[in-house]
Amino acid sequence: MTLILDLLQSLQYASIIASNGEEALELVGKEKPALILLDLSLPKMDGWTTAQKIKANQDLAHIPIIALTAHAMLGDKERALAAGCDDYVSKPINFRELASKLAQYLP
After folding, report:
1. CATH code for 2-105?
2. Less CB within 10 Å around the terminal CB: N or C of the chain?
3. Phi, psi of 37, rounded to the nearest 5 degrees
4. Taking the model in full, what pTM does it have?
5. Can you give the pLDDT of all 107 residues of the chain as single tens digits?
6. Cα three-residue angle 93-97-48, rounded to 5 degrees
């Protein structure tokens, strides 16, 4: 996570961090971020469920979600997209790919 935070900082993006899915859902509701980087293997509430709940809320559904995950087996990307993620980056993270996706979704 430190490397991702370093990348975000070097690209001059502000960030907030949640340690589990429940906290992520709460923070997204309060902060209404411009974009969500979501690990699918979160404790308490997994990323798939978190994405579904965010997209089910009309006040939050417009926020793009990029899944960052070690789930890189056949069908995992499709499962993440079906849960509500707008995009998908598998671990280990290719930082050029992630930077490109951030630029695509953020002004």
Report:
1. 3.40.50.2300
2. C
3. -100, 120
4. 0.92
5. 788 999 899 999 999 999 999 999 999 999 999 999 999 999 999 999 999 999 999 999 999 999 998 867 778 899 999 999 999 998 888 999 999 999 999 97
6. 60
